[in-house]
């Protein structure tokens, strides 16, 4: 708490390290995920499917896929959120392109890989959320639709992810998609259990 009793806010340096940590860990998670040929949900999942289908690199596709969502982010959650999210997405895209020069994966059992992907990306998103940023636009669209129509944001995200995994079945075998689903489940459990605004002050 601050001296006047109001909730203490993160400093600029704290926000910077939070964005750096989140972007780095998310990039490592994506590299492991694509190493295993997995898929995931949200805009990262869309970018991965496009990358698999076209052979284009994930980094530029992910950066481009997120561009249309920044205006909604600004309208719904403010300028600071939009700028931090833009920085996080840009940093992650750059890291995904550069990290393979210094990081390589050997054989990884898909069960271990699914758990690691979920835990890495879950911790990354927690860091970004707690510092007022995100890595994807689907959640923003979901909140916008909920405000405009009353349709629950959670259902919008669930429908989008279901479509992503349905399309993934045309590009990947069922076993790989099943392991991918385990990774996505672990990720969402990490967020659901730990992202509680009533249990921390930011």
What does this protein look like?
This is YitT family protein. Pfam families: YitT_membrane. It is a multi-pass membrane protein. Keywords: Cell membrane, Membrane, Transmembrane, Transmembrane helix. The protein is mainly α and 202 residues long. It has one domain. It contains nine helices and no strands. It has helices at residues 12-35, 42-54, 58-66, 70-77, 79-98, 110-130, 138-149, 153-168, 174-194. Helix 1 crosses helix 5 and helix 7 (138-149) packs across helix 8. The longest helix is centred in the first third of the chain and has 24 residues, at 12-35. The protein is globular, with a radius of gyration of 17 Å. 35% of the residues are buried.
In round numbers, the mean pLDDT is 85
Number of helices: 9
Structural domain tally:
1
Backbone CA Rg: 17 Å
The unreliable regions are none
Main pleated sheet: none
The run of helices and strands is HHHHHHHHH
Strand content: under 5%
Structural class: mainly alpha
Distance between the termini: 10 Å
Number of strands: 0
The backbone outline, from C-alpha atoms, is globular
The helix content is over 70%
Question: Could you name the key traits of this structure?
Answer:
single chain; 202 residues; mainly alpha; 9 helices; YitT family protein; transmembrane; UPF0750_membrane; membrane; transmembrane helix
